[in-house]
Amino acid sequence: MAIHLYQTDLPDGLNLGPIVAIDTETMGLDPRRDRLCLVQLSDGSGDAHLVQIARGQSRAPNLERLLTDPQVLKLFHFGRFDIAALKQAFRVTTAPVWCTKIASKLIRTYTDRHGLKYLLADLVGVDVSKQQQTSDWGSETLSDAQREYAASDVLYLHALKVELEARLIREGRLELAQRCFEFLPVRAELDLLGWGDTHDIFLH
Ligand code: MN
Description:
By secondary structure, this protein is an alpha/beta fold. Helices cover 40% and strands 16% of the residues. It has 7 helices and 6 strands; from the N terminus they run E-E-E-E-H-E-H-E-H-H-H-H-H. The chain has helices spanning 61-68, 79-90, 100-107, 116-124, 144-155, 157-170, 174-192, and strands spanning 3-7, 19-26, 36-42, 48-52, 73-76, 97-99. The protein has a 6-stranded mixed beta sheet with strand order 1-4-3-2-5-6, sandwiched between helices. A hairpin with a 5-residue loop joins strand 3 and strand 4. Helix 3 (100-107) packs parallel to helix 6. It is globular and about 45 Å long. Manganese (II) ion binds next to strand 2.
């Protein structure tokens, strides 16, 4: 397993295959206030690619091309947040997407624990630390612990998707999940426009 670290964009010519797991780290939970600091990517082979984003940076051509490539499925856990953060940073709509949290909510109706740590323990049998979750991602130099934590958020999403997809098929909910994933970029855009949880247009 290798963790590659890049500044401002993915390197030219890097091919991460047809399904790319993606996660982001930001300065906080409000994508309109809190800037994007790090984008983590994995092709599911065990390697992670980390891209540090500079303050004020608004373009990352190689990364943008990947996010908008219709031939590449972008795999997230709670993609709603990452898609909003990426749109706020680079003004691109990430698509097509797949979200392990939505899949879990549609299929693991026997629990309300849909955090990545629980999912990986329950379905993949890996134990990941969440210790660095709230650290300072705006730092110019990331610690080894930060890099390892950031990588662990994308390294197992492919394996998790396989397990969730099998259960979605078994329970007849794959097509419903698919339609939720198609709507996800719209949901993220609504968040950025001010229609988040407190002004949810689907509530009464
Ligand atoms: Mn993360």
